[in-house]
Every structure is written in C-alpha cells, then in structure tokens.
Amino acid sequence: MTSTRARIVLVRGDITEQTVDVIVNAANSSLLGGGGVDGAIHRRGGPAILAECRELRASQYGKGLRTGQAVVTTAGRLPARHVIHTVGPVWSKTEDRSALLASCYRESLALARTLGAETIAFPAISTGIYGWPIGNGADIAITTARSHGDAPLREIRFVLFDEPAYEAFERALTT
Ligand code: ADP
Prior knowledge:
Number of helices: 5
Number of strands: 6
CATH architecture: 3-Layer(aba) Sandwich
Structural class: alpha/beta
Strand content: 15-25%
Number of domains: 1
Bound molecules: adenosine-5'-diphosphate
Oligomer: single chain
Largest sheet: 6 strands, mixed
Shape: globular
Helix content: 25-40%
Strand order of the largest sheet: 1-6-5-2-4-3
Order of helices and strands: EEHHEEHEHEH
CATH superfamily: Leucine Aminopeptidase, subunit E, domain 1
C-alpha cells in the first residue's frame, strides 16, 4: 500500500519567505504580536493579519488563545494562503509541558488539513524567547509531524533560523 503521509523537509532560512499554503506562527496568547517569528510575520505580512487577530480577540477568543491551541487568519502579503497562529508553552525546568508543545504541532496540522492545505511551514515553536531546549523541541516536532501528516498534506517543512536548530532537526529526523 502506498503511504499518504506528508514528507518532512528541513530548510535553513526565514519562514516569512516560504511559498506554502500555510505558514505557522509561534504566537503568544494575546494574538496581538510579539518578537521573534511573530514579529517577522506581522512585519512582512502587513496589517491585514493583525486586523484579523483583533477580530478573533473581539469574538470567540476574548481571553486570548490557550497554550497548545491553533487559529487561522489570512496571510496578508506573505507568499502563503493562511497563517495558523499557535501558542507554544514556556519552557519549565520543574513541569513537563511536552504535551502542550506536541499539541501546537498536532492542532496546527489538523487545522491545515481542514483548510485543504498541501504544504505547511513551521518554525521551531517555543525554542526562542520561550526557552525550550532545541534538541527536545526538535524531537517533539518531528515525532508529531510523523504521525499527523495525513492527506491532503504533502509536505511539512520545518524552517530553521540558525545552524544549531537545523542540526537538531536533522538529528531528530534521522533517529
Ligand atoms: P517562541 O516564543 O515560541 O520561543 P520565537 O519566535 O522566539 O518563539 O522563536 C521560535 C524559533 O523561531 C526560534 O528557534 C527562533 O530562532 C526562530 N526564528 C526567529 N525568527 C524566525 C524567522 N523569521 N523564521 C524562522 N524561524 C525564526
């Protein structure tokens, strides 16, 4: 039987330059912008993304988006059809929040599939300002992508901003 699972691709680069159906944003619960990937997406995507985020806050997400959940907006001027915003957990030394990080990838992939997306690009969620160790973050990302890349998804692309992140994902992919 032929597999319908999406292939996993690693790219070193900037997620805002990816031509894909869906770009995933490592957002914060306010949905109103922040630093890192979030800042880059809003800068390059233009004000249409923030306008939709504000509408989401004014309607069903009055208290913000919960950690591990995902919502969709336009991609504005980005070379994508949609941006899926998901809120990663802040790294904790004392509490295991892995299930929440896995949930970000799983919920984003599920939402992308309902949108009919064939290609999706992820950053390494939580591994920047939120402090998640890159090796473990890569393992969770790859494991979750492997088990949730069903059709119509064809390609799950991880866009890694620096060499250590790229190498961590490469290790995760070959184990
Ligand atoms: P979080 O708050 O979830 O940690 P960050 O945006 O701070 O989110 O960082 C998540 C990851 O994205 C980090 O590994 C960071 O190096 C990387 N990153 C930052 N800017 C970009 C970008 N433009 N494209 C792809 N990855 C990026």
